[in-house]
Amino acid sequence: MSTFSLRALNDPNPAEIQLYKELRLQCGWDDDLVDHWFEQASKHIRVNLLCELQDPNQMESQVVGMIALVLQDDDDVQMADVSTKTAMIKSLFIKPEYQGRGYGKESIRLLEDFAVKQYGIETMTLETSASSKKNMAFYIKLGYAEFRERSPPLPWSKLGAAYMSKKLIPPTE
Ligand SMILES: CC(C)(COP(=O)(O)OP(=O)(O)OC[C@H]1O[C@@H](n2cnc3c(N)ncnc32)[C@H](O)[C@@H]1OP(=O)(O)O)[C@@H](O)C(=O)NCCC(=O)NCCS
């Protein structure tokens, strides 16, 4: 049976940065922020991760998507701020051929776990298009709820951006 996991690109090589750019393009966004994301990662305010499937009979793992954890956003501290133990999920994308198999859900679960264990995060936030019923339903199922007013309409979202959050349960000793 294949094992699904997240791998943080803490010390990425050029091929991994290129792969991140390709995933971003596949997702339908542009890749111009990717270099900046890795600069943020080197300052420890963002973690860029790959979603991977490992088949025990194969040497190489299969990349099925991407996800990121933002630890500090000085432009919007309600979304990510070390002092309030709040972090934000960003850039989630599961390749179309792997969608609908539970990997999106598992990516969120593993990222929450990582955030609690590595950084003591207590509140997880995210921003998504309020126009995408599919994405809203996906996050609601995972326990997220809107916590502040939506943004005005945006070019990519007629109903504006929805800001969602969830309290994370710390591990019991
Ligand atoms: C959103 C996304 C990450 C979901 O990943 P996924 O691997 O397809 O989702 P999963 O298979 O883990 O599904 C998890 C739950 O969401 C539900 N779901 C998934 N796709 C759905 C859809 N099209 N409509 C309604 N529910 C859906 C599933 O039924 C499942 O519910 P269940 O646990 O009750 O069975 C994926 O579709 C994606 O990468 N989309 C493009 C990029 C994007 O929109 N990213 C999010 C930006 S905020």
TrEMBL record:
Pfam families: Acetyltransf_1. The keyword Transferase applies. It comes from the Eukaryota. One of its GO terms (molecular function) is acyltransferase activity, transferring groups other than amino-acyl groups. Residues 7-169 form the N-acetyltransferase domain. This is Acyl-CoA N-acyltransferase. Keywords: Acyltransferase, Transferase. SUPFAM superfamilies: Acyl-CoA N-acyltransferases (Nat). PANTHER family: L-AMINO ACID N-ACETYLTRANSFERASE.
